[in-house]
Amino acid sequence: MKNRKLLFLVWIALTAFFCIVTSSASEIEIADAEALIAVMNDSAGWSDSYRLTANINLEGKAQKPIGTYTTPFSGSFDGAGFTISGLNIEAEGTVGLFGVISGGSVSDLTIEGTITNTFAAANAETKFEGNYHGTGGICGVILSGGSLTNCINYATVNALGNSGGVVGFVFINGSSETATFTGCENYGILNASLGNAGGIFGRIQISKSTASPAVSVSDCVNHMDITLNAEDRCRVGGIAAYVRSEAGIILIQNCENKGNIEGENALTSGGSLDHRPHAGGIAGRVEVTKGTSAAVQIRQCINSGNINGANHLAGGIAGYISRNVACDDSVTTVEQCYNSGDITAKNYVGGIVGQTSSGDCVKYPSEILNCMNVGKIDSDNYAGGILGEQKLFDIRNCFTSGTVSSKKSEWAGAITGRMYAHTFDLEGVYCLKTSSSKAIGVDTPQKEDVIIKIDTDAALKAETFALLDLQNIWKMDKAGPILQIVAEHHEHSYDDGEIVVSATCIDKGVKRFTCDVCRYSYTEEYDALDHDLKETEAAIEATCETPGKTAVLVCQRAGCTYTEGGEVVDALDHDMAEREAEVPATCETPGKTAVLACQRQGCTHTEGGEVIDALDHDLIET
Predict the structure, then answer these.
(1) Which of 519, 482, 385, 359 has the alpha carbon at shortest distance from 441?
(2) Structure confidence at residue 444 (pLDDT)
(3) CA–CA separation, 524 and 106 (whole Å)
(4) Which one, 367, 371, 470, 528, has the greatest CB density within 10 A?
(5) How confident is the model over 322-350, as a mean pLDDT?
(6) Between the CA of residue 198 and those of 125, 161, 169, 225, 579, what are the distances in Å?
């Protein structure tokens, strides 16, 4: 009996020390730092299921990632809405709170602190112990069957190549299960020195998969600015820097980038173009290659950040998309996406995609479908409101209102700077006449007439957009059509407006009001101004005998010649009043009429005072 009691007390003490409580056969609760450190150090438990029961601060604790290539984390980790703070993980190869996940899941977790990869990689392809390296706040590398749900990163990520705010590298090489990533957000600073840096993912790559889709990314948001200065694979994206499918579909949907994205390096000539900057609001560089089932689909995504591809290319949604002709079993598409950021780069710049290149896929042609751009597009070379350079991508049911400019003005088009090939569909595509002087920059002028060019008045009328689905995909707003997904993400919050056309004293002016969140804008007239009158000639007062004149007033506003006043005022009648009373005449003495004098100041006019003869006696016989 004593031995049983002693064993019970030992069990109680160990439970109190580690605060790991088995709440059921499948879940272990973690309540404090010591318990979490124990999980980090016990690879035998990396297939178990865990659940946080409190916020945990790891400050001052020795830490290391959970999971390696040799023993990946394959269990489940439920953050239960709690935060792990004080992270200070320094490791080589695969670095994050989790190093490698395969078949495991992490959910409802927020992290704060610092994640640092110390691996001496030469480039993004340098292998660590025979495998790819990667760095992310939540996880360094995720393999087949891994999933993240509602994971939020506030940690600073100091990385090499393949670096993301949430995940460094998603690598699928043989799986029948979809790798899913839902509701993840990045608020952390990302410092990367080599290729492939993204707000959520550094790199997503499928080499082999039978799952459909093989990778699903949904409802993820990057809030932070990301800048990558690297001569190795300079790919940078708000959601994912580098996306490559060799088999299976990678689906990115309902995601949003709010940060400014910039890729830069000194490569201007020679060497591979792959290493020059590829910058995109959602994805930097997308490759669809090899397998017939390979595809990348970007749907219902929004970018509001400014994108700068420096000396190469940039796109509001994707910097670059290529598709091999063999990949014809599934469509590669950018669909119902919206850009409001300003997009700049030297060579290829597009409001939706900077540059596309596709094989002539007959079964499922590549497409840009139901997309909208309101951002400003600027390039030294090819610039387009939808695509910078188009090659074998259909463009259908799109609208752009952003201004497009190029140092080579003939290479700027409201829809695309260059249409490289003729065998594609161009249907239901609208642009404002103010976007650019041409709809298509160069190479396929015969397509120019297919584009529907409209003025701002026509843009306000639903009947103008007969080829857009205004019931299910688009809706009419103050400035014209807008994708419903934009309206669903938020209510517009407009600024105080900027003057587009200044009002005059006679004509109304025009102001543009822009949403602070999505940068959608509309124009509205405001009232004409009142004249700003100033007296240039003083009034001349009329007198009793001479006429006067009203003051002359002249408008002081530039360009206005309006004047008023200067009218003649008639002379005044005398204002007469009796100054001397009448003296009546008598029979023997004369009298005098009353004397009247003008009362107006300065006037000496008088009347009256005339003598009245004495009266004759009026005699009667008495």
Answers:
(1) 385
(2) 65
(3) 49
(4) 371
(5) 92
(6) 16, 10, 10, 10, 102
Q: Return all residues near 147 (Cβ < 8 A) that are at least 6 apart.
A: 104, 105, 106, 179, 180, 181, 182
Q: SS3 string of 100-142?
A: EECCCEEEEEEEEEEEEECCCCCCCCCEECCEECEEECCEEEE
How far is Cα 457 from Cα 435, in angstroms, rounded to an integer? 14
Contact assessment for residue 167 and residue 96, using Cβ atoms and an 8 Å cutoff: yes
Q: State what percent of residues in the chain have pLDDT above 70.
A: 94
Q: 394, 370 in Cβ contact below 8 A?
A: no
Retrieve residue 402's tokens.
């952003």
Q: Which amino acid makes up residue 565?
A: G
pTM of the model: 0.82
105 and 145 Cβ atoms separated by less than 8 Å: no
Relative to beta strand 127-128, strand 131-132 is: antiparallel
Cβ pair 256, 298 in contact under 8 A: no
The DSSP bridge partners found for residue 170 are: 142, 204
Other CB atoms within 10 Å distance of the CB of residue 239 = 35
Whether 404 and 435 have beta carbons less than 8 Å apart is answered as: yes
- List beta partners, residue 379: 345, 406
* CA atoms of 373 and 604, how far apart (whole Å): 82
Residues 216, 87, 165, 134, CA torsion sign? negative
Which range of 348-352, 420-424, 531-535 scores highest in mean pLDDT? It is 348-352
Q: How many residues does the chain have?
A: 622
Q: Measured on CA atoms in the order 192, 320, 376, 338, is the torsion positive or negative?
A: negative
Tell me, letter by letter, the H, E, C secondary structure of 248-279: CEEEEECCEECCCEEEECCCCCCCCHHHCCEE
pLDDT at 559 over 80: yes
Alpha carbons 62 and 40: distance in angstroms, whole number? 10
* CB burial of residue 504 (10 Å; 0-12, 13-18, 19+): middle
356-409: pLDDT as tens digits: 988 877 788 889 999 999 999 999 999 999 999 988 889 999 999 999 999 998
Q: pLDDT category, 445, cuts 50, 70, 90?
A: low
Q: One-letter amino acid identity for 494? A: Y
Q: Is the dihedral of CA 88, 91, 94, 100 positive or negative?
A: negative
pLDDT higher than threshold 90 for residue 424: no
Tell me, rounded to whole angstroms, the distance of Cα 581 from its chain centroid: 92
- Does the pLDDT at position 14 exceed 90? no
* Bridge partners for 127 per DSSP: 132
- Alpha-carbon 453 to chain mean position: 25
User: How many Å apart are CA 230 and CA 241, to the nearest integer?
Assistant: 13
Residues 587-598 have a mean pLDDT of 88
Query: Is the pLDDT assigned to residue 588 strictly greater than 80?
Result: yes
Q: Which of these, 112, 69, 120, 107, lies nearest to 89 by C-alpha position?
A: 112
Question: Tell me, what's the pLDDT at 442?
Answer: 87
pLDDT at 113: 97
Torsion of the alpha carbons at 582, 585, 586 and 590, rounded to the nearest 10: 130
Of the candidates 320, 397, 336, 331, the residue with the CA atom closest to the CA atom of residue 361: 331
Query: Do the beta carbons of residue 587 and residue 614 sit within 8 Å?
Result: yes
The encoded tokens of residue 358 equal: 């596709």
Q: What distances in angstroms separate CA 476 from CA 427, 469, 471, one per listed residue?
A: 20, 11, 10
Give the model's pLDDT for residue 15.
Answer: 45
Tokens at 474, concatenated: 């688009």
